[in-house]
Amino acid sequence: MLPHMRYSVFKVLRDGLTSNRHLQPAWRDAVPKPHYDIVIVGGGGHGMATAYYLAKVHGLTNIAVVEKGWIGGGNAGRNTTIIRSNYLLAANEPFYEWSMKLWEGLEQELNYNVMVSQSGIINLIHSDAQRDAYVRRGNAMILNGAGAKLLSREDVREHLPFLDFDNGRFPIKGGLQQPRAGTARHDAVVWGYARAASALGVDIIQNCEVVDFLFQDGRIAGVKTTRGDIKADKTALAVAGNTSRLTSKLGFRLPIESYVLQAFISEGLKPFIHGAFTFGAGHFYCSQSDKGELVFGGDIDGYNSYAQRGNLPVVEDVFEGGAALIPFLPRLRYLRQWAGICDMSMDGSPIMCVGPVPGLYLNAAWNYGGFKATPASGWCFAHTIARDEAHPLNKNFRIDRFRTGHLIDEKGVGAQPNLH
Ligand SMILES: Cc1cc2nc3c(=O)[nH]c(=O)nc-3n(C[C@H](O)[C@H](O)[C@H](O)COP(=O)(O)OP(=O)(O)OC[C@H]3O[C@@H](n4cnc5c(N)ncnc54)[C@H](O)[C@@H]3O)c2cc1C
Known about the structure:
Blueprint: H1 9-17, E1 35-41, H2 45-58, E2 63-66, E3 82-83, H3 93-104, H4 106-110, E4 121-125, H5 128-143, E5 149-152, H6 153-159, E6 174-178, E7 182-183, H7 186-199, E8 203-205, E9 210-216, E10 219-225, E11 228-237, H8 243-248, E12 256-268, E13 276-279, E14 284-288, E15 293-304, H9 312-325, E16 334-345, E17 351-354, E18 360-364, H10 374-387, H11 401-404
Parallel strand pairs: 1-2, 1-11, 2-8, 4-13, 11-18
Antiparallel strand pairs: 3-7, 4-6, 5-6, 9-10, 10-11, 12-15, 12-16, 13-14, 14-15, 17-18
Helix pairs in contact: 2-7, 2-10, 3-10
The structure holds flavin-adenine dinucleotide.
Flavin-adenine dinucleotide is lined by residues 41-47, 66-69, 73-76, 78-82, 209-210, 238-240, 242, 246, 261-263, 297, 340, 342, 366, 368-372, 420.
């Protein structure tokens, strides 16, 4: 990044004193070249982070990120911004903990304010069985250096005094807290990676939809797009909910189903929630944005869809779950609701691997929890593409596990709702 482009307090002062006359676009909106070493399809968080780490860590800069709309217009800009590393299984926990570590230094790394706020997350406990499961998960987190605290009912009351602790059906019995978890400004993460990748020479090509693939000698040799053919030695997919659409052009089906997940925000309120909390038993989770809005969500919609909008029965379901936990929730006014397409795998864990077709690299199946994975996903996918082999942290995210039976069945994180 050229010195005059670095963001700092001095730059803010200089731009202010010169009426912003020297402001420059944060990244180049590139025109496609006929050939790249690597084409990454999908300008969400994962695609952009991959491009950045390919350039920064592996020194590969002849790269294009091809995005059918605008960067960050997919799930990256539609999620509820929660980041955490509170997983159980050995195949997942170290990966998400590495992501957490990257989040902790991301603003300095990218020289961009992605608004990481480590205000913590609490998973509420409503039954003895849930407590057993959370104790086990908390121990796995502690063993992996992620940190975890088991909270009593009274501890939870100190953090979240406004909850209905004595709800007849879902009395609150405690919680599992990860104090280092929190939130980050979702679309700023995409912009930050885009700016840093662009400064290293990566081409970011928006309004360019990949409609098919080019083949040569039995390998994928690039992509056909709405802006012409782009040849590439390596083609990497990071298109989240649209992955199965693109792989259908290659003649194979993935163990992924695309579902819509909705999110909601209320009117702004004075700050009263520090961190996020989840109500797995009632299918609801919530945090408060810096503007004061309650940001919350719940279940996926009940049918497969590629539409980025949700249906009304799930709206009702989410509000019912929320009202069982937060008695004043129905008295608030609601500003907006939106939806994104989630790529749900059959064991709830991601797929990140070389192949399954020569020349292709796959990054998918983030279910409804891929935002927190963004930095580690970019880091590991860049390694996988550059070296043609998985990084130790994603070696278990192979696609053939669905054939061999080596599933990563992370209960309560994948195909079950509310632990975003
Ligand atoms: C409502 C909601 C709430 C969520 N909350 C959380 C949360 O709190 N925490 C968490 O960790 N995760 C959360 N998630 C999940 C998370 O947002 C996703 O798993 C993650 O963003 C997916 O990776 P991505 O950012 O690369 O995807 P996306 O941003 O969807 O990027 C994929 C991109 O590919 C582009 N694309 C698709 N097809 C083509 C094509 N043919 N040609 C070119 N470009 C194409 C799309 O336009 C899109 O921009 C949530 C998701 C939703 C929908």
